[in-house]
């Protein structure tokens, strides 16, 4: 969440070309220079964090025969027989999954069918549908994209707050129920985006003026609220799968790989289908958000009705 806040704040700032003037050239205008500056900052932070992580973690290769390594002889013998899971082993785990795990995978797929249109088109939606601009045609689109980045920064603030409160919420109402409610909230936010776009196109500012403050504030509020469901999406499905697969004796890494398939496949579907789907209805982003809202609502109802609500257990006291 902290990284997202800093990253989206970088995208919402329009004066990077003044701080890094060498990015502004005859072939790269102000918007290009701001984007280029953000990439330079990304590279710097990636290099710094990579150096920190590689120097701070002192690891011993599993195949090492060094007796001073902090592994027991038994553990070393066991690790020597371990081999990485290949594709057929990944799909072979399907036959061990219970009905609840299949429900979690289905809800995960529906949830990400809802999220990917937003993650792909959020700032573009702000620039086109709310600010009425087009790329490389005036400043309305660029201003809308920066305002969308500001909304995503506020989204990350709520994401961080929700992350802190998530354990208490799941213990009180159950992880599946919280997940379902968050999906329904996400669907309502997408519905609000469609309504806001409908209101915007019936106002006469598009194409020649900036949107009214009320429209912009409403869009920012929607972006901000979506931080809560996003935090739950980033954690609850993984926790539920880990809990369910532990009793089956399956490796959690392999099981989480299967969960990632439930994320990647919807991403492929959205990436390949959202463009033609939007063009079919006039070229805007709203049709993809409509499909996302329906998927999120379906996933939320399934999570509430089909995922068992296990009783909350108090953590054991440390000896």
TrEMBL record:
The keyword Magnesium is annotated on this UniProt entry: no
InterPro entries, per database record: MFS_trans_sf (IPR036259)
Transmembrane annotation, as ranges: 101-121, 141-165, 177-200, 215-236, 248-269, 289-307
Keyword terms: Membrane, Sugar transport, Symport, Transmembrane, Transmembrane helix, Transport
Functional pathway: Glycan biosynthesis; sucrose metabolism
Location of the protein in the cell: Membrane
A GO CC annotation given for this chain: vacuole
GO molecular function term, any single one: sucrose:proton symporter activity
The family this protein is said to belong to: Belongs to the glycoside-pentoside-hexuronide (GPH) cation symporter transporter (TC 2.A.2.4) family.
Protein name, as recorded: Sucrose transporter 4
Organism: Citrus clementina (Clementine)
């Amino acid at each position: 969440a902290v990284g997202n806040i800093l990253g989206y704040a970088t995208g919402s700032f329009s004066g990077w070309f003044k701080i890094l003037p060498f990015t502004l050239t005859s072939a790269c205008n102000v918007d290009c220079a701001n984007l280029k500056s953000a990439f330079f900052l990304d590279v710097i932070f990636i290099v710094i964090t990579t150096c920190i992580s590689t120097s701070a973690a002192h690891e011993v290769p599993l195949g090492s025969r060094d007796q001073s390594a902090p592994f027991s002889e038994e553990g070393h013998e066991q690790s020597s027989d371990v081999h990485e899971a290949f594709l057929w082993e990944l799909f072979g785990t399907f036959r061990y999954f219970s009905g609840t795990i299949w429900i979690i995978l289905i809800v995960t797929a529906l949830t990400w069918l809802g999220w990917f249109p937003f993650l792909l088109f959020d700032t573009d939606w702000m620039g086109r549908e709310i600010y009425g601009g087009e790329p490389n045609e005036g400043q309305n689109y660029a201003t809308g994209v920066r305002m969308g980045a500001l909304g995503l920064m506020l989204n990350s603030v709520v994401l961080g707050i929700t992350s802190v409160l998530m354990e208490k919420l799941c213990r009180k109402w159950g992880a599946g129920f919280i997940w379902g409610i968050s999906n329904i909230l996400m669907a309502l936010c997408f519905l609000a985006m469609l309504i806001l776009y409908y209101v915007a196109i019936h106002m006469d500012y598009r194409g020649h003026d900036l949107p009214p403050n009320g429209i912009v504030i409403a869009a920012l509020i929607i972006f901000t609220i979506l931080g809560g469901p996003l935090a739950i999406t980033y954690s609850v499905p993984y926790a539920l799968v880990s809990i369910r697969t532990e009793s089956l004796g399956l490796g959690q890494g392999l099981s989480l790989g299967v969960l990632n398939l439930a994320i990647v496949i919807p991403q492929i579907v959205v990436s390949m289908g959202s463009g033609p789907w939007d063009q079919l209805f006039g070229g805007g982003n709203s049709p993809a958000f409509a499909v996302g809202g329906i998927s999120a609502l379906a996933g939320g109802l399934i999570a509430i009705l089909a995922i068992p609500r296990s009783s909350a257990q108090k953590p054991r006291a440390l000896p």
